User: Fold this.
Amino acid sequence: MKILVINCGSSSLKYQLIDMSNESILVKGLAERIGIDGSRLKHEKKGMDAVVIEKPMPDHTTAVKLVLDALVDKNHGVIQSMDEIAAVGHRVVHGGDKFKEPAIINDAVMKDIRACIPLGPLHNPANIMGIEACMKLMPNTPMVAVFDTAFHQTLSPENYMYAIPYKYYEKLKIRKYGFHGISHRFVSQRAIEMLGNKPNSKIITCHLGNGSSLAAVKDGKCIDTSMGLTPLEGLVMGTRSGDLDPAIIGFIMNEEKISADQVNNILNKESGVLGISGVSSDFRDIDVAAAEGNERAQLALSMFVNQVRKYIGSYIVQLGGIDALVFTAGIGENAADIREKVCTGLDFLGLEIDPQKNNIRGKEAVVSKDSSPKKIFVIPTNEELMIAKDTMLLVK
Assistant:
């Protein structure tokens, strides 16, 4: 069975075609600058150099059509006809509290995804455009929505509610939803396997990248996560502030004479390690600056590591212990120094990192000492494969 995985942004479309018989990626690609001048498609077939197709893409339907044409192209395609695609799995960022698991897309599901637009105004409209484009061009192919928020729907009310008037939960659905759920689910499932399918396993997953979040997972179910109503809550990130005193918003508005939307933009796009360091939102650039003695870059890294450690401590209390700590995503998979700093001094919790084992990038590994009572794993995330697996299960 071949599954096409689609992940739509407002002006981009990522895709992979996966052969589920052996879970291999046949082709992957990215359509960029949709609706903007200079749009192009980068199409990467396994065993071949990438093909770049520069064509106008005024909308997502045109972009999807270009992708489908590339899949069946006699030179760089990988299938003979569209009939070989058994189903399409779509990443949908926000499913609200309606979707606790993936869903086959029909009119009712589309209505519910649209109802979540106020909760996910930056992402859901783009996700919807991708779904509608595929439905138009592939009307007889099953479509599945896999939600980034679904994995966190097992949180209990004391973990997902905010201490504001209850009417705002009833009227506006203000609560913690969490994000990166597809990634947290993938790596936590793999960690359970690496623990020998230990029952009632207690795992903390650290999805560390430009956007970062942690999740506490007990027996395969999420009990808490660091992101909230939006991806702004939680850790210090590339450009996001993470946790802060909410009164800061009103204070900045009053002192700077700016609007709530302007402050929101500052907290989402001008803060985090970029705001602290003044160097970059890219941790690699900050690493270089810190090594050269830049004190603000050093501070930014220290704040990030400190926040990760705080959440780990909090989640160990909630879990009642820990069996494994997992690092994933761009920083988690590749930044050995960050992993070591996070784990330094956690020996009293049974988490002992091995500096030699930890000297790896981008591959699955056990990086804890052989003598460590608890395990520390690096597990590369694979959201596309998780989406494909969910899609296959539903359409079967």
The chain has 14 helices and 14 strands. The chain has a mean pLDDT of 95. The chain has two domains: 2-147, 198-378. The CA atoms of residues 167 and 173 lie 9 Å apart.
